Fold this protein.
Amino acid sequence: MDRETSIIKKADEFLQIFKKGEEFTQELLKENEKLRFRVAQLEETIERSGDEGKVRLYEERIKSVEGELNSLKERYKQVEEENKDFAAKYVEVEEENNNLANLYVASYQLHSTLDFNEVLKIVLEIVINLIGAEKFAVLLMEEKTNELVPVATEGIALADIPKARFGEGIAGNVAKEGESYFSGDIHRESFSADEPIVCIPLKIKEHVIGVIAIYSLLTQKEKFSNIDYELFSLLAGHAATAIFSSRLYTQSERKLTTIQSFLDLLKEKPRR
């Protein structure tokens, strides 16, 4: 809701700036009419005057026109600055709208299936396309062992990502604290499975079910923008919900299949 309010506010600012530009254009037209009328009056007066009168009238006319011209220049500069602000805000709003649209599509895809493997595949695609990550992994919390276990990777083998103890290392601390980690050097040349450049907790309310650990970014990704940080937060919440739901559903389906098989076995007639 806060993001929608922010976008509506920026749209209102855009309309106000556009309205100011329209009003300024109308004022220019009015000033032009006044100048034309003033010139006509002066020309008519000059025709009735002698040479000295003409000189004075021409001087008066020049001063008047110069004063009005300077005033128009100042107002033009103000409108030009407002137009620059408008252009910057328009680009910002357009970028946020595009990211919101992408996130909406991504969220729809995440919640369109209850297949656990399919959800993981969608998560990987989203992190690549929206965040611009090259190498990363999804690790989920194993309650019995109290460890983060890698379940999906991109750009790196699953076997190359070690398990992480809860509360230990970058991934373990992120899982414990529930707060994202961002390295100061996002284009680190060396790779270390224990030291991701970004680690995002997958949270359902305050309960962390896993993390997304990013080890490197695509070459065209120079830095993270404010929108990226918002996308990290929103994505982590949606991904966590989708993963948790699909995991529960898959487990329940397996249990149901096992129970059904057991019941079918009991129903079988004993051989004579």
In short: Residues 256 and 262 are 10 Å apart (CA to CA).
